[in-house]
């Protein structure tokens, strides 16, 4: 009886300790980014090394629209230093959710499907897909509809925002090989393994201007129409759902930087017009829809 009583009490204490440990672990992540910025002033941010969204420049420094906007809006919140990690685009969200990075500043568009996994700050950048083709545009690609024609092989990037739109526009998955990065996709286009490569517009400009890339151009005009609507993408900074409090405070300072001309200056620095900024009525909530958190 004494042994059973001791065992019962021991099991109860062990169960309570386990519950406390789990609760402590959960609370440690709740608001973790707010505490990290407040106490350390340093965060780790993932980028995709794609100019001009977020990349490593010739001097080895981090540059780009998204890192600069992140820094300008987060500095008033106590941010002193950003440590960057460059990785494949498809690895950004998994790395964020695994707590290997604290945020994403890699030119990621807000998509309802992504909103189910992560949370976005309000958008400060608009963009869309561009089609990079062989010089002279031999397949006469000027729209998603053209890409859906028989015999057209359309390259794209893994986890790209445009994949779902292209499928909805009629492009068959068997005709859309996916590449790990822009360089491998461009190589496939120059070698004739694909007829067109879909890239974010900023990435397309970078590739076409690269002196090592020969014989390609951006298809113009190019219409991105799906179900009768022109597709426009909105980009912003990405956080974990646990860090909604920091995201909300970040949104407040981001709004100020958009109104005082800071974001406009950053866009113009990278040869983007003010029109690339979305209107105030467009928020992460309106773009995410029911998936917004």
Automatic annotation (TrEMBL):
Top-rank taxon: Bacteria
Protein name per the record: Polar amino acid transport system substrate-binding protein
Main location: periplasm
Solute-binding protein family 3/N-terminal domain location: 42-274
Keyword hit for Signal: yes
Signal peptide feature range: 1-30
Source organism per UniProt: Rhizobium miluonense
Record GO cellular component, one term: periplasmic space
One Pfam family this sequence matches: SBP_bac_3
Subcellular location: Periplasm
Keywords in alphabetical order: Signal
UniProt keyword Signal present: yes
Gene3D superfamilies: Periplasmic binding protein-like II
């Amino acid at each position: 009886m004494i042994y059973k009583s001791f065992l019962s009490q021991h099991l109860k204490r062990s169960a309570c300790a386990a519950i406390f440990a789990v609760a402590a672990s959960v609370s440690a992540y709740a608001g973790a980014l707010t505490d990290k910025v407040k106490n350390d002033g340093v965060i780790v941010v993932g980028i995709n090394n794609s100019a001009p969204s977020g990349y490593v420049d010739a001097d080895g420094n981090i540059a780009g629209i998204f890192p600069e906007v992140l820094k300008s809006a987060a500095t008033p919140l106590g941010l002193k230093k950003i440590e960057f990690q460059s990785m494949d685009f498809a690895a950004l969200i998994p790395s964020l959710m695994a707590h290997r990075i604290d945020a994403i500043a890699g030119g990621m568009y807000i998509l309802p499907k992504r909103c189910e996994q992560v949370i976005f700050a309000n958008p400060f950048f608009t963009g869309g897909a561009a089609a990079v083709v062989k010089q002279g545009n031999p397949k006469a690609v000027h729209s998603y509809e053209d890409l859906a024609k028989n015999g057209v092989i359309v390259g794209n990037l893994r986890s790209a925002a445009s994949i779902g739109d292209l499928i909805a526009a009629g492009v068959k998955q068997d005709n859309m090989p996916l590449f790990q990065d822009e360089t491998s996709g461009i190589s496939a286009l120059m070698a004739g393994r694909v007829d067109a490569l879909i890239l974010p517009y900023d990435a397309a400009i970078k590739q076409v201007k690269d002196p090592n890339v020969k014989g390609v151009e951006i298809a113009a005009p190019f219409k991105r129409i799906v179900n009768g609507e022109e597709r426009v993408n909105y980009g912003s900074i990405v956080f974990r759902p646990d860090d909604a409090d920091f995201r909300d405070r970040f949104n407040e300072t981001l709004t100020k930087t958009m109104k005082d001309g800071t974001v406009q200056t950053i866009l113009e620095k990278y040869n983007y017009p003010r029109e690339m900024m979305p209107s105030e009525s467009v928020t992460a909530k309106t773009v995410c829809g029911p998936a917004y958190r």
